[in-house]
């Protein structure tokens, strides 16, 4: 008998409104162990609001959010401000994390980085290298699921490919589940098991090759949109 894959998160008919103006409404989806869910949609579609609502940062106005009991959740917001001019090493930065489960060295091994990285200064890191260290920060909690808002925003092309390769490696080696907000449809097609299309309301949900048809993409982005992509 095939073993049932645990449901880590179940969202039913979720809506969020600010001052009676709906930002997102009637959102429903599930995510299972070792699954990658991509969330796509135009700017202002409510993608970041959805992530913050899942985390309990924003209160929903309707619907339900059910996490697997005791689940460990990691989160990297779209903007994680780090003062690059502080005279701080990577190790000192990671040591600021309270109540971490994994050691700095263990997290670096997960990310295929040498221990010597702990002595590097934040000010000397490229955008892609800094994003790796922010990912390390999130992994110190040994999360079972990671919510990642725009993993490669403000990262150079080489760094973008490195980040997605790392996320794929983490999923393969640790069984990490991922919820990614992304504008990169090539990444969605290559890595995501399911995609949630969001434009205030739920436009689509399902396997990318089936869900992202021309009608759906036009409803999300317009008929003449040039989609962002990078070479994988």
Keywords:
9 strands; 26% strand; 6-stranded mixed sheet; alpha/beta; Rossmann fold; 232 residues; 30% helix; single chain; 3-stranded antiparallel sheet; globular; 8 helices
Give an overview in words.
The protein is of the alpha/beta class. It has a single domain (7-221), classed as P-loop containing nucleotide triphosphate hydrolases (Rossmann fold, 3-Layer(aba) Sandwich). 30% of the residues lie in helices and 26% in strands. The chain has a six-stranded mixed sheet with strand order 5-6-7-3-8-9, sandwiched between helices. It has a three-stranded antiparallel sheet with strand order 2-1-4, covered by helices on one side. β8 (194-199) and β9 (201-206) form a beta hairpin. The radius of gyration is 18 Å and the shape is globular.
Summarize the structure.
The chain is built from 8 helices and 9 strands. By secondary structure, it is α/β, with parallel strands linked by helices.
């Amino acid at each position: 008998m095939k073993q049932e894959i645990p449901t880590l998160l179940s969202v039913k008919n979720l809506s969020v409104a600010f001052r009676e103006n709906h930002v997102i409404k009637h959102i429903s989806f599930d995510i299972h162990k070792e699954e990658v869910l991509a969330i796509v949609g135009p700017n202002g579609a409510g993608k970041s609001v959805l992530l913050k609502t899942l985390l309990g940062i924003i209160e929903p106005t309707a619907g339900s959010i059910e996490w697997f009991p005791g689940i460990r959740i990691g989160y990297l917001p779209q903007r994680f401000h780090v003062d690059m001019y502080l005279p701080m090493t990577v190790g000192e930065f990671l040591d600021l994390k309270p109540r971490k489960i994994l050691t700095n060295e263990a997290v670096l091994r997960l990310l295929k980085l040498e221990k010597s990285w702990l002595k590097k200064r934040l000010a000397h890191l490229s955008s892609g290298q800094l994003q790796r260290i922010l990912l390390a920060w999130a992994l110190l909690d040994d999360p079972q699921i990671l919510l990642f808002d725009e993993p490669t925003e403000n990262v150079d092309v080489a760094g973008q490919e490195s980040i997605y390769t790392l996320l794929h490696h983490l999923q393969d080696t640790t069984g990490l589940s991922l919820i990614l907000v992304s504008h990169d449809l090539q990444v969605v097609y290559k890595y995501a098991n399911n995609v949630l299309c969001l434009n205030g309301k739920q436009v689509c949900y399902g396997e990318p090759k089936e869900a992202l048809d021309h009608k759906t993409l036009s409803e999300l982005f317009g008929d003449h949109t040039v989609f962002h992509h990078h070479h994988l």
